[in-house]
Write a structure and sequence with these properties.
Elements lengths: L10 H13 L3 E4 L5 H11 L5 E4 L9 H14 L2 E8 L3 H9 L11 E4 L6 H9 L6 E5 L11 H13 L4 E5 L11 E4 L18 H7 L4 E4 L1 H4 L4 H18 L1
Helix pairs in contact: 2-3, 4-5, 7-9
The structure holds 5-bromo-uridine-5'-monophosphate.
Length: 250
Amino acid sequence: MQLSFSKSHHPVTEKLHHIVTSKKTNLALSADVTDSEALIRLVEQTADHIAVLKTHIDIVTDFTSLLTQRLRKLADEAGFLIFEDRKFADIGNTVCHQVRDGIYHIAEWADIINAHLLPGVGIIDGLKEGCKGRDIGLLLLAQMSSKGNLFSPEYTAKTVSEAEKNKDFIIGFIAQEKLTQDNDLITMTPGVNFDAKGDGLGQNYNTPEYVIGEKKSDIIIVGRGIYAAYKPAEAALSYKEQAWKLVERH
Ligand code: 5BU
């Protein structure tokens, strides 16, 4: 078995590689719940099965900084990285503030963040500036899972070439398939579900077999397939086991 991302080019990639290989999981949980206690409970139940916890911190209705402190503690104890799926999309100066300041202080607790390249390369420098002082890796949005999205092959190719030029900060992509032979760059793929094909609001789902086996993604991102399941811990375990089997086979 060979993971397709290398372990040494960036401190966050190195940590992720260690977690993935030692816990034998390439599962990211997208914990899109809106209540702090429910979020903590979900993470406690699934922590052993995940390599990455993906948050949308701005959907939590009762947010206080205690929540991110508790998530950070759980991450350090159970061994997973925290990926805040904020999808930055503004000029460098603004995203620098958005990642560092406001009420969320994302740069104080996240390991991974993501951004659209749409505004131009200044967004990379702005985020890098806002993340100074901690090891944080940036994923570029290269493709999306949703129906009718406006990503073109040219735009996707441009994100790949900018990532290849900025590997001191960029660790890979959110995409629907592996887009580069450069194994320093990770591919994480959302829109994964065993059962559903979509959600009535434009989401498209694929199976782990398709995403890992055929599209050669490294990490699957699963939200409702886990947190909306009757038993989230069991669902997380089965996504983990199935995805890991595919990594071992390919
Ligand atoms: P779901 O419940 O498995 O559908 O959740 C998917 C998550 O991944 C959700 O948090 C989205 O915001 C996120 N996502 C996505 O679904 N598709 C994309 O292309 C990107 C992010 Br980028």
